[in-house]
């Protein structure tokens, strides 16, 4: 099934994901933007989807891909960096909590960005291996959970707190870990 339009609604995203998971029904959503030039002609431009971007990325030469992969740090090297910087335990706790609930760990030079499995370009949580103000540095994008999982933004904020970049102590990381368990339990109940 294809749905074609000039805008994309978050509810449509949730419905297509639900139908794909629950019923095995694949719905492709194609977006177009319509522009009018100075002569009154209308121009239709198709937006790229994540799948389109992946196809284009697959066209890169294997040498370029190999070079890029060699420059990317491993999760283990980030764990070691976090250990050297005194935030290794907190860094690992976030990794274990996020991956336990199926979030994808996207490795960057100084951090791990945890993304929804359905869109690995969107950040839900980002944890840095280097402390900030001598504390564990983390970003939590609470509204993102509502965009990718069957939970309201209000319920997500109520459970794990508002969107924030903050420096956390060990008890705060432990609380975030517990709250993520509660959030994903609610998500499971809503499916």
The unreliable regions are 50-56
User: Radius of gyration, rounded?
Assistant: 20 Å
User: Helix count, per DSSP?
Assistant: 8
Number of strands: 8
Question: What's the helical proportion of residues?
Answer: 40-55%
Order of adjacent strands in the largest pleated sheet: 4-5-6-7-8
Shape: globular
What about the largest sheet? Answer: 5 strands, antiparallel
- The average pLDDT is 83
Order of helices and strands: EHEEHHHHEEEEHHEH
Derived from helix and strand composition plus strand pairing, the structural class reads: alpha+beta
**Number of domains as seen in the coordinates:** 2
From the N-terminal CA to the C-terminal CA, the straight-line distance is 22 Å
Beta content comes to: 15-25%
Short recap of the structure:
Helix content is 48%, strand content 21%. It contains 8 helices and 8 strands, in the order E-H-E-E-H-H-H-H-E-E-E-E-H-H-E-H.
What is the fold's blueprint, element by element?
Blueprint: E1 2-5, H1 10-23, E2 28-36, E3 42-46, H2 50-57, H3 62-71, H4 75-84, H5 88-100, E4 104-107, E5 111-115, E6 125-128, E7 136-140, H6 142-148, H7 153-160, E8 164-168, H8 170-190
Parallel strand pairs: 1-2
Antiparallel strand pairs: 2-3, 4-5, 5-6, 6-7, 7-8
